[in-house]
Design a protein that fits this description.
Elements (H helix, E strand, L loop, with lengths): L2 E10 L15 E13 L2 E8 L8 H14 L15 H8 L12 H19 L3 H8 L10 E7 L8 H15 L4 E4 L5 H12 L8 E4 L6 H11 L7 E2 L7 H10 L4 E3 L6 H10 L6 E3 L9 H13 L14 H9 L5 E3 L16 E2 L2 E3 L12 H11 L1
Parallel strand pairs: 4-5, 4-10, 5-6, 6-7, 7-8, 8-9
Antiparallel strand pairs: 1-2, 2-3, 4-12, 11-12
Helix pairs in contact: 2-3, 4-11, 7-8, 9-10
The structure holds magnesium ion.
The site of magnesium ion has 5 residues, from loops.
């Protein structure tokens, strides 16, 4: 097969959502289409991906380095000779030639987005959903392939005007959809007001184990410890990103003081960063690890992240990719992880899953469409389709 063209575009996410540290009013995403000369079922095979949420578009490095490198590379450097299909792991090795070590986030999103678009092509050419392709490539035995996956609704952003009323309606909506666990933002108000907000959410749920908190890196060390002490009696599902991602000492201190689980990882961009996080930050047996596949070099690097995490004592069921999109869902299912996040109704066309996915009792079924299956997500597919038309 040949790649005819690779098209990328920056798309505004258009949302007024706010967490403790930032609002998303200027947030953008990069969408990518890798257009091939192949056809399946009368349709041209095009690999699609986007760079998830929260880190702005990554068109610069894509346009200047990675798209030209992939377009120029001989097929032998990124096509598996046995199957004739793209080998995304080999492609990443080729893309990273002439890249100095370190400063991974400068390129991990551009490379990860391209890598996932290549996996989409592999799935489409082999007629299988991506999670099955990943399971085979990374050695998850057929018998342990899941039929459903645990999934929680991530939301509870701060909203202007009647925040508590809106929070109430949002959580009730998630429960009506079939979710049983919810995550809300925290750390953006005075402690007493945040506790009131938490108690408001708890009143809608059976107990604290159904509610997680995301502090979005809001606290310094003292604040993080005070906050952790204040929420300890609630017995919550986890406390996410209490401090700066690189403040491993505070992560460790919170993990030692707080009896529940501490979560983090959406701001770690490669296996080495995750290794350091687990070695020097929160206790691995009580962490919930949440890297985001397209933000961190893609599914292949995610597999390395899983390997290093398991070696350091993180149970597979505590690895729950960030992102709330079809890419994270496939990676979680294909690597046998504990579950996935979902953003139903948030982030415009980029939030939520495809039409194939239903939520029952806090679990989602897995999709059957070949590849990632963005074609079954009409509002998002309309954006992708413009790239390849
Ligand atoms: Mg988060």
């Amino acid at each position: 097969m040949r790649i005819l063209d690779i098209v990328e575009r920056t798309v505004p996410i258009l949302t007024e959502l706010k967490n403790a540290r930032v609002d998303f009013s200027e947030m953008t995403a990069t969408v990518v289409a890798v257009i091939t000369d192949q056809f399946r079922d009368g349709r041209r095979v095009v690999g699609y991906a986007f760079n998830s949420f929260g880190r702005y578009a990554c068109g610069g490095p894509l346009r200047e380095r990675f798209i030209p490198r992939l377009m120029k590379a001989p097929a032998a450097e990124w096509i598996d000779p046995a199957s004739g299909l793209p080998d995304p792991l080999q492609a990443v090795r080729m893309l990273l030639r002439r890249e100095k070590a370190g400063a991974d986030s400068e390129r991990s999103m551009a490379v990860g987005t391209l890598e996932l678009a290549l996996w989409d092509i592999v799935g489409k050419l082999s007629g299988r959903p991506l999670y099955q392709v990943l399971a085979e490539r990374f050695g998850l035995p057929d018998a342990s392939l899941p039929r459903t996956l645990a999934c929680y609704a991530g939301g509870g952003f701060y909203q202007s005007g009647n925040d508590l009323e809106k929070l109430d309606a949002e959580i009730r909506g998630y429960l009506d959809m079939g979710y049983t666990a919810v995550k809300i933002k925290t750390g953006g108000l005075r402690l007493a007001d945040d506790l009131r907000r938490i108690e408001h959410a708890l009143a809608l749920l059976p107990d604290g184990s159904h509610l997680a908190l995301d502090a979005s890196c809001a606290f310094d060390r003292q604040q993080a410890l005070a906050f952790a002490a204040a929420i300890a009696p609630y017995g919550l599902r986890w406390l996410e990103e209490p401090c700066e991602p690189g403040d491993l000492e505070t992560y460790r201190a919170v993990s030692e003081a707080y009896p529940g689980r501490v979560a983090g990882g959406e701001n770690l961009f490669c296996a080495q960063e995750v290794h350091n996080f687990l070695r020097y930050g929160p206790a691995p047996d009580r962490v919930v690890l949440q890297p985001d596949p397209p933000l961190a070099y893609g599914a292949g690097e995610f597999h390395r992240i899983v390997q290093t995490s398991v070696l350091q004592g993180v149970p597979l069921e505590h690895i729950v990719p960030h992102g709330g999109n079809m890419m994270s869902l496939h990676v979680a299912a294909g690597l046998g992880l504990g579950g996935a996040e979902s953003y139903p109704g948030l982030f415009g066309p980029f939030g939520g899953f495809s039409n194939e996915i239903a939520v029952v009792d806090g679990r989602v079924n897995l999709p059957a469409a070949p590849g990632i299956g963005f074609e079954e997500q009409p509002a998002l597919y309309a954006i992708f389709a413009q790239l390849s038309s």
